[in-house]
Amino acid sequence: LGVEDNVVFHNRFVSQEELLDFIGAADIYITPYLNPAQITSGTLAYSAGAGKAVISTPYWHAEELLADGRGVLVPFADPHAVAAAVVRLLDNEAERHAMRKRAYLACRDMIWPNVAAMYLRTFERAREDRSRRPRPAFTAVTLRQRAVELPSPNHAHLRTLTGPAGIFQHAIHTVPNYAEGYTTDDNARALILSVLLERRGTEWPYAPRYLSFLHHAFNRETGRFHNRMSFDHRWLDEVGSEDCHGRAVWALGVVLGSSRREGLRGAAGQLLEPALHAVEKFTSPRAWAYVLLGLNEYLRRFPGDRAAQALREELAARLMRLYEAVRTPDWLWFEDIVAYCNARLSQALIVTGRSLERKDWLDAGLESLEWLVRVQTDEAGHLVPVGSNGFWRRGQERARFDQQPVEAHCMVSACLDAWRATGEEKWRAEARRAFDWFLGRNDLGLPLYDAATGGCRDGLHPDRVNLNEGAESTLSFHFALEEMHQAGDLIGN
Question: What are the helix (H) ranges across 26-155?
Fold first, then answer.
């Protein structure tokens, strides 16, 4: 060809940087592979993506990428055909530019940023589809075919989570997360669980620590509880939520009403009366419900406390008025949204209605709970709590995920109180259905209870469980487990 003075051969592999420099300087790129089964060529992909005119032998990758006028294909081992194609393209600038532009545009979806964006869109579609039509992670074993015995209590992770000031709020997998500190919410839950354990003969040694936290959290100037405390014991809020206050009152009522430990009762008694002063002004239905659950426990032992009696009747009447105002034939609920800790609202009316022989309150609690059971039971027969990622507002699509252990626990508690109030065995069966959610009878067929540590994972996502084992989740499981065991003890099962 007479071009030997203008050709340089590099008989080596070049770096990516050098390769891109060579391709960028080229007008025409030639890939003369001799093997028809060549399934990929990186330099071909780079050249077409850079919008270069490409001449190639017809191996598989080239046939696909250079089809429809995006390049020139020549026979294998035919240098004359290569030369003719080079001369033609150099002589026909318009054809060469049109061909390389077609190649450039066709390769836009192949560059890494666009490939990544397509993967992201695919993942988003899959996630959305999974949230609407969840599929079990495996089907080899099904809890629907056989009953599973209640696990024996394993409190190792509760001990791990309990620090010098109380129970830590969060965990990184199974390790306490000091950065998130403590909450009154969780220490109130832990105190209630301590009394439940006491009923079955276990004197939980950390109960005084949890109660001490509540004392420290109570601000006597405002009459309200703080909620969030840092690891170095600084309060991170001016005042806790009404729900937090309600949980603390509930825990105090449980201690006073059920604990056999005189020291705990004495300390709780100093706190309950001042903590009740703020409750009458509360507007949160869940705070009302928590206080009602605590007052019902407290008044079993101290039925002569007229102020507590009056507050109990007032809060129950408020819940009832709320239910009557919102309830419709197809929405048997207290609010226009099914949000969190939902079954506690029904439970509060059931317990109070039973205690005061108010059939209207009892019936409303049972009716709303039956509706909640119905809308949270999948066609396959397992519990599907309303997800925390949006909840469920009336007239809108409900969130299926993330499903929280506290919701399963609330359903266990409420259904067992419905069973005690009515004697109907269906409620005990519903409690068991809710409890089995922890053991794997759920949308993914995956257990949230970690039998090795005694902890409970923090939630059920569309495609996996949350592997962190924080206080709320772990307490929810053990709370529910104790209630199930104690319900079994009542009937000798």
Answer: 42-49, 60-65, 79-91, 93-106, 112-132
DSSP notation for 405-420: HHHHHHHHHHHHHHHH
Q: What six digits make up the tokens of 109?
A: 């979806």
- For residue 76, being part of any structural domain is answered with yes
State the CATH number of the domain containing residue 155: 1.50.10.10
In whole angstroms, give the CA distance from residue 294 to residue 437: 26
- Asked if 44 and 71 touch (Cβ cutoff 8 Å), the reply is no
- Give the HSE-up count for residue 147: Cα atoms under 13 Å, Cβ half-sphere: 5
Mean pLDDT of 190-213: 97
Q: Which residue is listed with tokens 């990428």?
A: 65
Quick: pLDDT tens for 318-333.
999 999 999 999 999 9
Q: Kindly state whether residues 263 and 398 are assigned to the same domain.
A: yes
Those residues with Cβ within 8 angstroms of residue 299's Cβ, 6 or more apart along the chain or in another chain = 257, 305, 308, 309, 312, 355
pLDDT at 57 over 90: yes
Quote the CA–CA distance of 236 and 232 in Å, as a whole number. 11
Same domain? For 66 and 161 the reply is no
Instruction: Check whether 146 has a pLDDT greater than 90.
Output: no
In the chain, helix, strand, coil percent, each to 5? 55, 10, 35
- The phi, psi pair for 455, rounded to 5°, reads -95, 175
State whether 317 and 442 are in the same domain.
yes
Same domain assignment for residues 483 and 347 = yes
User: How many domains does one find in the chain?
Assistant: 2
Closest of 305, 304, 235 to residue 276, by C-alpha: 305
* Among candidate residues 53, 88, 110, the one where a domain is terminated: 110
Q: How far apart are CA 63 and CA 58, in angstroms?
A: 5
Structure tokens at 259: 């604990």
Range(s) of the domain holding residue 468: 143-490
Structure tokens at 461: 């996502």
Distance CA 398, CA 395 (A): 9
Q: What is the pLDDT of residue 11?
A: 86
Query: Where does a domain end: 110, 129, 163?
Result: 110
* First CA to last CA distance, the chain: 97
Supply the DSSP symbol for 7.
-
Only one residue has tokens 């077409």, namely 48
Nearest CA among 153, 268, 174, 273 for reference residue 220: 273
